[in-house]
Recover the amino acids of this structure.
């Protein structure tokens, strides 16, 4: 699908809102039905129907369609933060007795979730240098159910070989998550490399205007339904319709912003690498 079509048109049903170019903010917690029979049908599939905004909301639905298309995913869910999206992905994927392998130096609150919070629920995590796929293989245990990647990772911007890790994981029946916040879907498509779930802190490049905290989780329809019935609906860390609207607006300029990032990176690097107060520069 064409990138500018996704950013500017996909999911927007302008004919139903007077041709408005900016979609309406459907600021409603609950939705009405013309008959009891239709309400019952809605209750039967809260994932697809607009019943209650903790489950589904028309403005949030536009954002979900766009981000799923950007990542080449069947579906995605929107969260109140990137940390909420990662927590939901992990909690939907493990249970007591399971083991997780995570790349060393992930985002600090991803590390906190795996290192400090999950042991209380009987889940342990090993952290490995992700620059060599053999390190993942060495860290696997019979009870490993999940591999968490972040490529490039926070602060040191090391990369992992997504295809190789995904192949290894699939051969052992292990689920994979990749935090794609730094690369953005314009520069890296983890699902095309065989990764199961993609997490975004949409607070960063996807929104790009420093006025929203949001998270996205992308994957197959089957896994998204599993996450929806589990941590999405029970934790309730949803994105508000207004924040979804701001993100839809932010996405309009994603392509031009990323072009500018690419065209100015070399100049920033040249400046910091030559600066006497800077000892080391990390970049992917
Ligand atoms: C900021 C960030 C997060 C957390 O996202 P929030 O929106 O702040 O909750 C997760 N991963 C990466 C790589 C980040 O930069």
């Amino acid at each position: 699908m064409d990138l500018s079509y996704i950013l500017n048109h996909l999911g927007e049903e302008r004919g139903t809102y007077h041709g408005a170019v900016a979609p309406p903010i459907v600021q409603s917690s609950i939705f009405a039905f013309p008959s009891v029979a239709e309400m019952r049908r809605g209750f039967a599939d809260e994932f697809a129907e607009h019943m209650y905004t903790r489950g589904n909301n028309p403005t949030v639905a536009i954002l979900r369609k766009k981000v799923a298309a950007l990542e080449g995913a069947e579906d995605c869910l929107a969260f109140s933060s990137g940390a909420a999206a990662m927590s939901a992905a992990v909690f939907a994927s493990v249970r007591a007795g399971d083991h997780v392998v995570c790349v060393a130096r992930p985002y600090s609150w991803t590390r906190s979730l795996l290192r400090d919070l999950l042991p209380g629920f009987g889940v342990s995590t090993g952290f490995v240098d992700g620059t060599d796929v053999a390190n993942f293989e060495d860290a696997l245990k019979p009870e490993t159910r999940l591999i968490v990647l972040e490529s490039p990772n926070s602060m040191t911007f090391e990369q992992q070989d997504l295809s190789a890790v995904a192949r290894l994981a699939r051969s052992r029946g292990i689920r994979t998550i990749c935090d794609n916040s730094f690369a953005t879907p314009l520069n890296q498509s983890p699902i095309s490399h065989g990764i199961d779930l993609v997490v975004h802190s949409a607070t960063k490049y996807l929104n790009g205007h420093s006025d929203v905290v949001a998270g996205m989780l992308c994957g197959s329809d089957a896994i998204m339904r599993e996450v929806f019935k589990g941590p999405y609906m029970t934790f309730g860390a949803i994105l508000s319709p207004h924040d979804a609207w701001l993100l839809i607006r932010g996405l309009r300029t994603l392509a031009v912003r990323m072009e500018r990032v690419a065209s100015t990176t070399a100049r920033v690097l040249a400046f910091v690498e030559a600066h006497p107060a800077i000892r080391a520069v990390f970049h992917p």
About this structure: Residues 3-253 form a domain with the Aspartate Aminotransferase; domain 2 fold (CATH 3.40.640.10). DSSP finds eleven helices and seven strands in the chain.
